[in-house]
Structure formats: structure tokens, C-alpha cells
Design goal:
There is one protein chain. By secondary structure, the protein is mainly β. Helix content is about 0%, strand content about 45%. It has 1 helix and 17 strands.
Length: about 300
């Protein structure tokens, strides 16, 4: 980030495509609930969408990387900062290079997510290094996230595209030393955070938890998950930022998002679950996420009849 300066960025509306797969159950006398799905999900920075403030250095715009800072430097070496998209479904996970993330996911039937009921998606890493205020920094971009679902058990089928969703993603580069009185946007002293006040990512007005679709007479629910590094569920949906942090992002109270620490890398890992009933979600926890690997929609998906 730039030392002793405040920069805000507003991500342009993010076009997010959910692609759902439908299958024909030829020869079946009655439909059965799909208990396993294959999936492929990817997220990219849309070409030409990044915007930058004025300054020196070099900016880089790739499908899975937006970086800025010292010419000839590196974000892993501390002389540049970056946002990168990785693949959490890989073993070991990758933090750069993008997706797609692929795998199998089991339909949850009891509301308790575990094991194969948790699908790993993409990750987003902020390589947040202190940079000179003379260097240009990122102020905005657009992310496109897509998902394909295909029934595997009891039967497979073709893939069909679903509707697009759009949401606004905002990012604020904050001053290390804080604002008035040395306070960060959440009202906490900058000294309470190693390296100073964290940078902020925030979202608003788009729920992605327990979004339903109908397939072959059964209703399923898709929920975005925030995952821990071991693949376990950290939360269903994304948590709230404080009112002060929402204001710093230009969002209304109750916005959702996450913080990224100064002088290091913060990786947010995303996944999703498909359930046969709505998941119990503590309030709050009903907002969409970037680069998560899945951004779903409530859509009615009809079985394709065999010709």
C-alpha cells in the first residue's frame, strides 16, 4: 500500500455466471435426488477492466493477477503489491495462476457440512506490501466468476448456462498509521494491528446463502462458504465489517467483507455446498463473495426431457 495515504477503489459491477448442469434419466421410472455432482469453477480479472491512480512504477493486468509497484520487483519479494487468484482445489493449493477449481461434491442432507459435502473453489490473495506514495496503485477492476454443475449420481447429464449476477465489490487502501487520533476505520488503534491498519474489501446487497434451484422434482440449496486453510468451514457466507469500515468503503452499515493485514499476504479461500434443505446460518452471513470459486443464484433448473 502507499504509506501515509488513503486510496479507495470501487470494483466495477462483477459479472458472475452460474452454469448449472441438467441430465436426462433415460429409462428411469421415477426421479431420484442427485447425491453427487461434479463441478468446475473459475474466476478471472476481466481484461481491460483494471483502473489505476497516477504514479510511477509498473502495473500488470493478467487474468489471474493485478499487481503494481516497483518496476522489476515482485510482490513475493515485497517490492510490489498484488491481487492474485489461486486454486484451492489443487493439492497443494496454488495461490497464483488462477483456476479452474474442479472436483466432486456430495449433496448435504442433514444440515451439517463435513468431508465431501464441502467443495473447494478458488482463492483470492492480497499481497499487501508497503509501497512509496509515488507509485501507482490499483483503484478498481471487474471479476467474472463461472460455475458448472453436472449430476453424477444417480446419473450424469449435459451442462446448461444459467443467468448472470452483478454485484459491487469495493476495496480501500488505508493509511498504516490510521486516521484522526491514530484510529483505524473500525475505531481500533492502529497500534493494535501488526503493521498498522488493515486494508478493506467489502460487498453489499447480494445474498448467496441458501439460494435454491429445482432439478427433476427436487429442490436444492447452494451456499457460498468461507473456508479455513485445512478445508474446513470457517463460515457460511461472509461476515460483517464494522459500520466505520463500511463507511470507509462507501457502503451502508451492515456490509460484508474481510480485512487484509499490512506487510504480508492474506489469502481468502472460498468454496460452496449443495444441500437438500436450507443450511442454518447465524446472522449475519448471507452475502456473496469474490473469487470464491462459486457465486450461485436462486434459479429454477428444469430437467431436460429425453427426446
Amino acid at each position: 500500500m502507499k504509506a501515509n495515504t488513503i486510496t479507495k477503489r470501487t470494483m466495477k459491477p462483477v459479472a458472475i455466471a452460474l452454469v448449472a448442469a441438467l441430465g436426462a434419466f433415460a429409462g428411469s421410472a421415477s426421479a431420484a435426488m442427485v447425491t453427487q455432482w461434479s463441478y468446475s469453477t473459475n474466476a478471472v480479472f476481466v481484461a481491460g477492466s483494471a483502473t489505476w491512480d497516477s504514479g510511477g512504477g509498473t502495473t500488470t493486468e493478467l487474468a489471474s493477477e493485478l499487481s503494481w509497484g516497483t518496476t522489476g520487483g515482485s510482490f513475493t519479494g515485497g517490492t510490489r503489491s498484488a491481487l492474485t487468484i489461486g486454486d484451492f482445489s489443487e493439492s497443494p493449493e496454488t495461490l497464483t495462476g488462477g483456476g479452474p477449481a474442479t472436483g466432486l461434491v456430495t449433496t448435504d442432507e442433514d444440515g451439517t457440512l463435513a468431508g465431501s459435502e464441502i467443495a473447494k473453489g478458488i482463492s483470492i490473495s492480497h499481497w499487501n506490501n508497503p509501497l512509496s506514495s509515488t507509485l501507482a496503485t490499483l483503484t478498481g477492476a471487474t471479476i467474472l466468476d463461472t460455475l458448472s454443475l453436472t449430476p453424477v449420481l444417480p446419473s450424469g447429464g449435459p451442462t446448461e448456462p444459467g443467468p448472470d449476477l452483478q454485484f459491487v465489490f469495493k476495496f480501500s487502501e488505508t493509511p498504516n498509521a490510521g486516521g484522526v487520533g491514530g484510529l483505524c476505520a473500525d475505531g481500533t488503534s492502529a497500534a493494535a494491528y501488526p503493521g498498522g491498519c488493515p486494508d478493506l474489501f467489502g460487498y453489499q446487497n447480494l445474498s448467496i446463502v441458501n439460494q435454491f434451484f429445482n432439478y427433476d422434482g427436487f429442490t436444492y440449496f447452494v451456499s457460498v462458504l468461507s473456508l479455513n486453510s485445512d478445508g474446513s468451514v470457517d463460515s457460511i457466507g461472509i461476515g460483517n465489517l464494522t459500520n466505520g469500515e463500511c463507511s470507509a468503503l462507501g457502503l451502508s452499515n451492515g456490509c460484508f467483507g474481510f480485512r487484509t493485514a499490512e506487510g504480508g499476504r492474506t489469502t481468502e479461500r472460498f468454496g460452496f455446498a449443495i444441500s437438500a434443505r436450507p443450511l442454518p446460518v447465524p446472522e449475519p452471513g448471507t452475502l456473496a463473495l469474490l473469487g470464491m470459486g462459486l457465486l450461485g443464484v436462486g434459479a429454477s433448473l428444469r430437467r431436460r426431457k429425453a427426446s
